[in-house]
Amino acid sequence: QVKMKLAIAALLAGSAAAFAPAAQQSAKSTSLQVSELELGVTEPLGVFDPLGWLETEPEAFERRRAVERKHGRIAMAAVVGIIVHNNHIVFDGYLSPSNNLKFSDVPTGMSGIATVPTQGLAQIFLFIALLELAWLPASKYDGDYGVGWFGRDIEDPEEKARKLNVELNNGRAAMMGVLGNMVTEQVT
Q1: A GO biological process this protein is involved in (predicted)?
Q2: Does 63 show up as a binding residue in the annotation?
Q3: Using one digit for the tens of pLDDT, what is the confidence trace for 109-124?
């Protein structure tokens, strides 16, 4: 019983350390600009770099941030799709008239992708490839694709930085939400 209490106390102390502020990296230790590192940093965690890539591969940071931003945007759209589809809000009509497949016949969750005909999956793949190569190229690291914030440009740098922080953090939450949803569907 005493050993159990000591184990619980050790676990509590260890978990409390997870919420302690992280040691701040010095600005001189990396060749990146501080402004690039500040985006997406949430207190009290600070810069999260468990593998030390900021020190060993600082030139790759910009690409990784662009990929994180793009995956976050896709995941935010996926969360909306999950919520809508799991509430059985569907289009009227047919997904594939030749296969007599209605939108309402597509099951919710991961099993729904298996019901989409191969030609439909090919169309989705080609559309995404067109977006990736033409309109939203992966080489455009700043994430600004010329559409603005709901159609208006943001001139104030503070407001833009705040909105970019919100976007990065919401994207991270959405990526975790989509992953959690997929795992839960497969487990249950």
Answers
A1: photosynthesis, light harvesting
A2: no
A3: 888 889 999 999 999 9
Q: Is 88 annotated as a binding residue?
A: no
Task: State the average pLDDT over residues 21-45.
Answer: 54
The model's pTM is 0.70
Q: Is 57 a known ligand-binding residue?
A: no
Q: Give the pLDDT confidence score for residue 138 in this predicted structure.
A: 67
8 within domain boundaries: no
Query: Does 132 show up as a binding residue in the annotation?
Result: no
Residue 99 among known ligand-binding residues: no
Q: Is 168 labeled as ligand-binding?
A: no
- Buried b / exposed e along 40-73 (16+ C-beta atoms within 10 A): beeeeeebeeeeeebeeeeeebeeebbebbbbbb
Note whether residue 77 is domain-resident.
yes
What domain range includes position 128?
45-187
Q: Which amino acid is at 91?
A: F
User: What is the C-alpha separation between 188 and 183, in angstroms, rounded?
Assistant: 9
Residue type, 138: A
69 is in an annotated binding site: no
> Residue 126: pLDDT band by 50, 70, 90 thresholds?
very high
Domain count, the chain: 1
